[in-house]
Amino acid sequence: MKRFGALPLLALTGALMSCGVGPIDMTAPTATLTATPTTLTAAGTVTMTATASDANGISKVEFYDNGTLISTDTTSPYTASKAYTFADNGAHTLSVKAYDYSANVGQASATVTVAIADRNEPNDSVAAATPLSIGTPISGAITGQDRDKDYYAFTAAAGDMLKLNVRSVSVDSNSTLDPYVMILMPDGKTVLEKDDDGGSAMESEIRFNVPVDGTYTVVLTSFNIHNDATATDDLATNTYELLLSRR
Ligand SMILES: [Ca+2]
Ligand SMILES: [Ca+2]
Ligand SMILES: [Ca+2]
Ligand SMILES: [Ca+2]
Question: InterPro entries, per this entry (predicted)?
Answer without folding.
Answer: Ig-like_fold, Peptidase_C_arc/bac, PKD_dom_sf
